[in-house]
Design brief:
Elements (H helix, E strand, L loop, with lengths): L1 E9 L5 E10 L4 E5 L6 H8 L7 E6 L2 E2 L8 H7 E4 L11 H10 L5 H14 L15 H12 L6 E5 L7 H15 L4 E6 L2 H7 L2 E6 L2 E6 L7
Parallel strand pairs: 3-8, 3-9, 6-7, 7-8
Antiparallel strand pairs: 1-2, 1-4, 4-5, 9-10
Helix pairs in contact: 3-4, 3-5, 4-5, 5-6
Amino acid sequence: MIELRNITKIYPNGTEAVRDVSLHIRPGEFVSLVGASGMGKTTLVKMLVAEEKPTKGKIILGGWDITRIKAAHIPLLRRQIGVVFQDFKLLEKKTVFENVAFALEVAGYDKRHITEVVPQILKLVGIYEKKDVFPDELSGGQQQRVSIARALAHRPKILIADEPTGNLDSVNTREIIDLLQKINKFKTTVMLVTHNRDVVNSLKRRVIAMDEGRIVNDQAHGRYVL
């Protein structure tokens, strides 16, 4: 599903953000990518969604080499990869329903498809009853559920959650992690990028640790050991 072959990323100022990283993530896996801030996690995510290109190496997603992807093909790639961020990135002047629908509208889906699919996704993430309210009327945990729903709008094969619980309290953190596990049970590959030790240790799933741009640990049923 995801394969990185000897990936290195060097920025114009000489910073080597990722150093000779190779890994393989199988379809349907739930993987935690851990490490302190500035250790290469975010750069790795940016390369997976073609926001950045590697300086060296190759990235394969679902058999598709995206290392030198053409700009015209990036929207198609991003329909296969849902991304959730720490700060939600919701549109304040759109309702919950409209926020999720917007992701489909910009991709050219018709109104009939949108009115059928959006309620299904909102029910899946447990936020359907809030479909007509605006983001500022929601708690942080509820806003993150909307963000996850939007990321699932295209029914992606891969969901990348980049510090999805960074702004949440412990109760909402647990609920969002439970939701990601629920999504994973539908065979969606999930990559959780986090520095939350307690979350990672509670999952008992695969843990990939990065330090100074390199993978320093990869355990099938691991713990946050850095």
